[in-house]
Amino acid sequence: MNPQRAGCARADQDVLVVLFDEVQSLDVTGPVEVFTGATYAAEAAGRPARQGYRVRTASLDGTPVRTSSGLTLVPDGALGQGPAPHTLLVPGGDGTRSRDPRLIDAVRELAPHASRLVSVCTGALLLAEAGLLDGRRATTHWMFGEKLARDHPEVRVEADRIYVRDGQVATSAGVTAGIDLALALVEEDLGRDIALTVARHLVVFLRRPGSQAQFSAQLAAQTAQREPLREVQQWITEHPASDLSVSALAERARLSPRHFARAFRAETGTTPGRYVDRVRLEHARRLLEDSADGVEEISRACGYGTPEAMRRAFVRNLGTGPAEYRRRFRTTTAR
Questions:
Q1: What residue stretch is flagged as signal peptide (predicted)?
Q2: Which partner from 81, 83, 125, 180 sits 20 to 30 angstroms from 212, CA to CA?
Q3: Which CATH class is domain 13-202?
Q4: What is the pLDDT of residues 158-209, one digit of tens each?
């Protein structure tokens, strides 16, 4: 991909979205809303008319398709008709697993003419079938990461990522991750101010970094059934720098430490200590990615106490220290 800086946006970017039966509707409409919203935002900001996106949809024969949720989408035309797109976007859904040779051939023929190739969710399976991910890093919905790796060993699958960018190819995880990736592309093309305007309009975060895991600590663990334990889970998330020892958390839940530890594990599937560790690690990663705070300040804000304690947690879980993690993140997002 060729990064574009604010004020140097590429003109007239044509986005073509591939439609097929049993496509996931949100994989289509999420990115479409982002790109369309960016065009409106650019116009409202007084940008030149050429700084925006033309979004088109196309199916194999130009006929309507039925999504996996039962909605009917009417495409603008047939694949192969019209100008070559700047961005070719392949969404996911049950239809990607049919391995329709006509659809795969159409994507394979279109891809070399596009400057940017994007997939959402299991759209990566179609790209892989077309041989377009060979030798590249890629991700997909967490349920299909193993399948992608097994069926296409030539693809370097990073199944825990929200999205992965490798050259002119970008792949994202399931459903809402397509919005994250689309916002990242808008920020690259038109600048942070336009991307932020779109994110605010859609009431989503401007950027969940691609390196973020598909599951947060709250999603990876089960939600406790009993209200006191659910309140403790929320407290941990909101107060990572507090005393989060078993005894302190048990007191908050109004249980004995032994009873609390047993109940927490039984209802969430993990121990209190492991849950706390993951929450603190996630919080530290976000601060390293999104703030200019130093490692010492971040270690205190996340409850590690010392930079060395945070460094050990990073090395143990991510294989690298905090400073190197920040450097890699900034290098990746600057591409």
A1: none
A2: 125
A3: alpha beta
A4: 887 888 999 999 999 987 889 989 998 998 899 888 988 898 888 775 555 5
Nearest to 31 by CA among 204, 191, 212: 204
* Backbone φ, ψ for residue 64 (5° rounding): -60, 150
Alpha helices (H) in the chain, listed in sequence order: 25-44, 101-110, 123-129, 145-151, 177-190, 192-202, 217-220, 227-238, 246-253, 257-268, 272-290, 295-301, 307-318, 322-333
- For residue 187, the SS3 value is helix
The second-level CATH assignment, the architecture, of 217-333 is Orthogonal Bundle (1.10)
Tokens of 239: 């107060």
Q: Which residues are identified as catalytic?
A: 121
How many degrees, rounded to 5, is the angle at CA 286 between CA 133 and CA 164? Answer: 5
Answer whether 0.70 is exceeded by the pTM: no
CA distance 134 to 84: 22
Q: What are phi and psi of 146, to 5 degrees?
A: -65, -40
